[in-house]
Structure formats: structure tokens, C-alpha cells
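1st attempt posting a full record on here, be nice pls
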Amino acid sequence: MPNTYTQIYIQVVFATKGRDVKIKADVRNEIEKYICGIFTNKNQKVLAIYLNPDHIHIFFSYKNLQITIPDLIKTVKIESTNFINEKKLCLGKFSWQEGYGAFSYAKSQKDNVVNYILNQEKHHSKQSFKQEYIKMLNAFEIDYKNEYLFEFYEQ
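the predicted structure (as C-alpha cells):
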């Protein structure tokens, strides 16, 4: 009896509500581990994750097609928000912005994407999150409207 086999690499990016700088370095690792656990519980494998103070990059192997990407990201946002608020890992109430970016990659690009995500601190010393995100949208030839991007505030 034939089976279904898939191997799809996806990077998702989403931001904190209002792009508030909510995630402090001392809690980043704990939140990343929790989010990885959510992916594991949904039979997905995180290959790289980096939680910036105001946004997150998650690169994962999307194998279990029993859950859609929108449902997976919704679950990640809800469960991680609850975790952060219950554990009081941020000052004030925490939440993620609506929306996200999802970008697919070939197996040959896997190592480059992992390195890119794990070196977020270095990348953001040279370009803002807004510049990075628009660059990704353009690289993937995604039509977008500025008013529907994340809430970007000039600093």
C-alpha cells in the first residue's frame, strides 16, 4: 500500500503586538524552548529559531500535513502568548501581532537559512526588521501593500 511522503522547509516570521520590544535576553531561551515544544507536539521539527526582542524567525520541516500552516501558527501564537503571560516573562501583557510571513525553501538552502536565523543579532546590527522583512517579500516576489504589513514604527 503506497504512503505519502513530504519534505517541505518553511520559515515563518511574525512580530510582537505593536512591535513592542518585549522579549528580554534572559527569557529568550525559555520561550524558544517552549515554542519548539509546541512544534514537536504538532509533529513538526524546528531546525532553527531566533526570538528577537520584537519578532521571531522559525525555520521548520513541515512533515505532518494533518495541520495546516495557518492552524499551526495560530496554535503557536496562542499557546506561547499564554505561556509568556502565565509565567510573567515580560513586563505587562504580551501578545503577537496578527499575520505572519511564511517562506518555503529547497533542501539545498537549508544550511544557509539555519545560519541566517541563528545570526539574527548580527543581521539586525546592519538592517532593521522592516528592511529585512520587505527584502524577504521582494525576494519571494510576494505582492504586498504597506498598510497590511506588520505595524512598523520608525525609531
